[in-house]
Design goal:
single chain; 418 residues; mainly alpha; 18 helices; globular; disordered N terminus
């Protein structure tokens, strides 16, 4: 196929190339998570299973929300270099519904065991009363449903018009995607912040932080960029994106990855600095708990592993385009994101230190969700063309000069202008 001259009605479809890996992950994860659930319900009524499931869920939610942000920015800035990677980003973002909504059900069902405020009488606790009616069982479930509803509307419409653009190439498709991105970026900011506060920060409902939404956004974009870099390299080496994603464009993903390494560290520091400077017991207790036992060492690992190591590795300009260097950093980013989420979630039920005895349960939840989502992604990826077929910026993404494109298409711009 020649993208310059052909617009086939049935564009070629390719496999993501994951083979049986997602199924193996699901089976192994289901065994570990199932055994862990039985042990957890026997020992603590399912609390540790609930928070382990929440930990894995928030990790994959971060990636999906981060890719949604990249799609929105792509349309709002009318970017050309990212056209080739837009399609698989659309597939990842579309996992928000129904896949991640289904994976949220155990959190919703176990919410009274996970979130202590659900068992507190608002009449006896002002921190709960101030957050009514959201901080009620019905309020929690309704708010969660609204979040997934907004994400479904946004991702489904962006994907719908993107696929329709493949069929018609009409300008209307581009205009519709820009329209949904226009209000979508506002809806994204509100829903991402609300989800981070409702599902993660509220584990310790007494705590206040004006930076938490920004922190959750920066972390989500950071881990999403790591995932996008890995997938782009994988698809390029399989020949899927040859011609539509230039090797030089890896620099753009790398520089964004580097930028969000800095921005995420800034949000973490700013949050800590504000709490330290105010020195209010209603805020400092959150950090004091995380200085207990092994949590102090987890905090030190995050300072160096989440920021300093990626920062100094990615600092040289040439490195950002070197997959042999950046791919290990991306894999490291996955590990640091999981550890950072554990630092936020687990101390609410394990203030004494990291619960190493439940690591196998947490691993099982990660494997099951990762396998299920990878299987869904591969299935959706194989149904459609691997990249947009008639995007107006496709030639720019290919690095083709417009005059050359016109010559190949058999037209003369000089004559056409007469």
């Amino acid at each position: 196929m020649n993208p310059l001259t052909d617009n086939p009605a049935n564009p070629p479809k390719v496999s993501l190339g994951l083979g049986a890996l997602p199924v193996v992950m699901m089976v192994l994860g289901a065994i570990l998570a199932g055994l862990g659930a039985l042990k957890s319900f026997r020992l603590d009524g399912g609390v540790d299973f609930g928070i382990s499931w929440l930990l894995a869920f928030m990790f994959f939610l971060s990636i999906a929300l981060g890719t949604l942000f990249l799609i929105l920015i792509h349309h709002l800035t009318d970017a050309g270099w990212s056209v080739g990677i837009r399609r698989f980003n659309e597939h990842i973002a579309a996992l928000l519904f129904p896949q991640l909504a289904l994976l949220f059900l155990p959190v919703a069902l176990l919410a009274p065991k996970i979130y202590s405020w659900m068992t507190i009488d608002p009449a006896t606790d002002n921190t709960v009363a101030a957050k009514l009616p959201v901080f009620t069982k019905p309020g929690f479930w309704i708010a969660s449903a609204i979040l997934f509803g907004i994400w479904w509307l946004l991702t489904s419409q962006l994907k719908r018009w993107s696929l329709k653009q493949d069929e018609t190439g009409a300008a209307e498709c581009t205009h519709k995607m820009r329209f949904y991105s226009g209000w979508g970026i506002v809806a994204f900011a509100v829903t991402l912040t609300f989800s981070g506060v409702l599902w993660m920060k509220s584990l310790q409902h007494e705590w206040y932080s004006a930076m938490y939404g920004v922190y959750f956004f920066a972390s989500s974009a950071w881990v999403a960029l790591a995932t996008v870099y890995i997938l782009t390299v994988w698809l390029k080496r399989r020949g899927v994106l040859n011609g539509v994603f230039q090797d030089s464009s890896f620099y753009f993903i790398g520089v964004l990855f580097f930028a969000f390494t800095l921005f995420q560290a800034y949000t973490e520091f700013a949050q800590y600095f504000v709490v330290w400077n105010a020195n209010m017991p209603s805020e400092t207790f959150w950090y004091l708990i995380r200085e207990n036992g092994s949590w102090w060492w987890v905090g030190m690992i995050l300072i160096f592993g989440h920021f300093m190591i990626p920062f100094f590795i990615l600092l040289p300009v040439a490195v950002k385009s070197n997959a042999k260097v950046v791919i290990p950093v991306c894999l490291w980013a996955w590990l640091m994101r999981a550890l950072d989420l554990a630092f936020n979630i687990l101390p609410a039920h394990h203030p004494e230190g990291f619960p190493l005895r439940w690591v196998w349960l947490q691993l099982g939840c990660f494997l099951f969700m990762g396998g299920f989502l990878a299987w869904s992604l591969a299935k959706n990826f194989a149904k459609h063309a691997p990249y947009p077929q008639r995007d107006p910026r496709l030639l720019e993404a290919m690095g083709v000069n417009l005059n050359v494109a016109n010559d190949l298409a058999g037209s003369n711009p000089a004559e056409a202008s007469r």
